[in-house]
Amino acid sequence: MSKPLCKIVLVEEEPILRDITVFRLELLGYTVVSFEAARDANAWLQTELPGLIVVGNVAEADSLEFMNHLSNEQRTSEIPVVYLSGSSDLEDVQKAYNAGADEFLVTPYDPIVLEKKVSQLLVLTA
Q: pLDDT tens, 14-73?
């Protein structure tokens, strides 16, 4: 087995989407740490820093507020964020980018598109 490329944090309250996304990213060689709630992710981020954060529906918080928090915190502001959303509405896309998303992916997503977006963001921050 090859050495993991990078650590990715996934915050998604929906168990099936969380499990599928973790599985797909791990297949690509990434180490994935997943959380259901923003509170748990924030606690982990106090001591660890991933190369990328993927945010979907966040338990106990609004996803956009959570991304806004990430982009406003000095410790996490430089970490790229991929936002997973069930909506492709242009207004929702704009809100996500305004909240700090670096990439936007509509669910259900094409695994190849996820791979490309993650790879591109990690190359840009390397």
A: 999 999 999 999 999 999 999 999 999 999 999 999 999 999 999 889 999 999 999 999
Sign of CA dihedral 15, 22, 102, 116: negative
Indicate whether this model's pTM tops 0.90: yes
- Please state whether the peptide bond connecting residue 108 to the residue before it is cis, i.e. omega within 30 degrees of 0: yes
Q: Which of 93, 92, 94, 102 is nearest to 70 (CA)?
A: 102
- Among all chains, which residue has been given the structure tokens 């997973």? 84
CATH of the domain at 32: 3.40.50.2300
Helices (H) and strands (E) in the chain, counts: 5, 5
